[in-house]
Amino acid sequence: MKKYKCVFCGWVYDPAIGDEKAGIPAGTAFEDLPDNWVCPGCGSAREYFNPID
Fold first, then answer.
1. pLDDT of residue 30
2. CB distance 2 to 51 below 8 Å
3. H or E element in which residue 3 lies
4. Which of 4, 7, 8, 21 could pair with 49 in a Cys bridge, judged by C-beta atoms 3.0 to 4.6 Å apart?
5. Residue 37 above 90 pLDDT?
6. Quick check: 53 pLDDT over 90?
7. Is 9 annotated as ligand-binding?
8. Do residues 12 and 30 touch, judged by C-beta distance below 8 A?
9. Could you tell me which InterPro entries the record lists for this protein (predicted)?
């Protein structure tokens, strides 16, 4: 699964880790995140994340 990086603060969503603070379990693909999920680093919406290698 691909990682995604916030264009504003650089926080990286790693599906292998998830987002514990938001209740997103490890193994959750970026595409499967809830629509209301936001960057834990700066609060940006999902649309401001780009895939990284």
1. 98
2. yes
3. strand 3-6
4. 4
5. yes
6. no
7. yes
8. no
9. Rubredoxin, Rubredoxin-like_dom, Rubredoxin_dom, Rubredoxin_ET, Rubredoxin_Fe_BS
Is 6 marked as a binding-site residue?
yes
Q: For the full predicted model, state whether its pTM sits above 0.90.
A: yes
- Is 42 assigned a ligand-binding role in the annotation? yes
**Mean pLDDT across the chain, nearest whole number?**
97
Q: Is 35 marked within a binding site? A: no
Are the CB atoms for 11 and 19 separated by under 8 Å?
no
User: For the domain with range 3-52, which CATH number is right: 3.30.465.10, 3.30.70.270, 2.20.28.10, 2.20.25.90?
Assistant: 2.20.28.10
Task: Say how far apart CA 53 and CA 40 lie, in whole Å.
Answer: 21
Residue in 23, 25, 30 with CA at minimum distance from that of residue 3? 30
Domain spans, the chain: 3-52
Amino acid at site 22: A
